[in-house]
Amino acid sequence: RSVPFWKWLWWRAVAAPPKFLKMRVTTRVSAIGKIVESADPRGETLLLGLIGDPWVVVREAVASGLGKLKSTTAVPDLCRLVTSDDSPQVRRIAAQSLAALGDPRGIDAILKLGVYPRSLSVSLEYISRFGEVAVPRLIASLANENIAVATVAIAALGRMGSRVAVPKLLKTLYEGREELRLPLLRVLADLD
């Protein structure tokens, strides 16, 4: 009787991780796809074990797979990928998975993704998917000491058209830092 490939792979990864990591990269990526297709909840543990793989393509497949498996236990690991992975593509895919999960714990990491110059529009798009759930976190981010994070929060509130945030935006305009005034004025003008 033959054993399904993903079960064999599961055994290799859990019982003998060094052997699994010695597999070819294409085999690992293919196996990740099979695990995600199987939708077996045990596959989540395997994917979490591969989140720190040295190969970018494997980390991309893992980040995407965790989003497809709707793995809420992976939110902290996905947040770590978004904020600290060396690869911009891995950061974007992890942010996409966080947005797909819809867990508010991912909002702060997606905000920090917007700090990278080429990722601002991606960050804003993913944050807007959270809807009104994101507004309190975005308002709290207006006081972030990192100007870039505060600017992304301002842009996200403007993009969402959040009228709930107008009083806080006005307060930040009058009491906040000079560097935030122009983005605040633009957003407030658009909200009127």
Give an overview of the whole structure.
The protein has 192 residues and is mostly helical. The chain is built from 13 helices and no strands. The chain has helices at residues 5-15, 17-21, 25-38, 43-49, 56-68, 75-84, 88-101, 107-113, 120-128, 135-141, 147-160, 166-175, 181-191. Helix 6 (75-84) packs antiparallel against helix 7 and helix 9 packs across helix 11. The chain is elongated and about 70 Å long.
Quick overview:
Helices cover about 70% and strands about 0% of the residues. With about 190 residues, it is mostly helical.
List keywords for this structure.
single chain; mainly alpha
* Percent of residues in beta strands: under 5%
* Rg on CA atoms, Å: 20 Å
Helix content: 55-70%
What would the average pLDDT be, to the nearest integer? Answer: 84
Summarize the helices and strands and which ones pair or pack.
Blueprint: H1 5-15, H2 17-21, H3 25-38, H4 43-49, H5 56-68, H6 75-84, H7 88-101, H8 107-113, H9 120-128, H10 135-141, H11 147-160, H12 166-175, H13 181-191
